Amino acid sequence: MNEIQNMANVDGVITPVGEARIPVMDRGFLYGDSIYEVFRTYGGIPLFFDEHWERLENSASLIHLRLRLTREQMMEEIRRTFMASGAGAAGQDVYVRYCVTRGEGPVDLFPNPELPNRYVIIVKELLPWRADFYSRGVRLAVSQTRRNPINALNPNIKGGNYLNNVLGVIEARELGADDCIMLNDAGLVTESSNSNVFFVIDDDICTPGESAGQLRGLTREALNEACAAHGLDILLRDISLQDAANATESFITSATREVMPVRSLVFPDGHTLEFPEGGGELTRQAMAHYRDYVERYLRAHADQRLN
Ligand code: PDD
Fold it and tell me: Does the predicted model carry a pTM greater than 0.85?
């Protein structure tokens, strides 16, 4: 396999990531005043490019930011960065993160609406998750840190300030787990630090509804559709810690993880619930339906190939 070079594109200037620079007065750096998306490619085709763009537009509207680039311009800049990384020639899939900051301005919380936004695209090697996260599962712990409430910092803003999630994952590591589950202020399950969470409760796959307050994950949405097409409905419902304690399977989803089984969950009282290694029956069905869905998507979107 050929090597690729991790590249960044800052407002059209493409360099190796280690050489990319943004000014310290950028509001993304000063205030976390930015939004972003992450996707991966499959055979050079971005997965869910349009859906990611729509989510970025939604984040932009939630933070009152007017995007300077159009969807087509962003796609073209991503393509140029991808080609510069050598991934096209090497036939390698990549991780793509594109971010829009509110730009550079004086130290002033109020953002002058005239500031031109800055975009930063990172195209890098797609690092595999630890193999045992799939063969056995990922270990989660419920953090004391609660997810930002919708009326404080709406989790549907995929923004550049991830301190809430960073604190959650630090706590989980201190508890010997790999990642966290965060509750909302009513004590209901929301999501993991950068993935959505599902439980099998009373033989149904369940995930928190919109009102719990989590990011509208695109993997989660695709999985809902994929499963529904096979007559397997995923229930959107409130999930309390008591409900989670009655779960028999669990998994998490994200663009880079796809469907990843959960092996164990540590509760705030210290007790640990174990789930089937490598995922139970419904988790395995969900994994298979998602894989088929992605294959169908890629066949239908071959024209979006970056190389
Ligand atoms: N994270 N919840 C949060 C808080 C996330 O940051 C993410 C994605 C998800 C899953 O969304 P999706 O299925 O659209 O990837 C849920 C990305 C992968 C990241 O930050 O790297």
Answer: yes
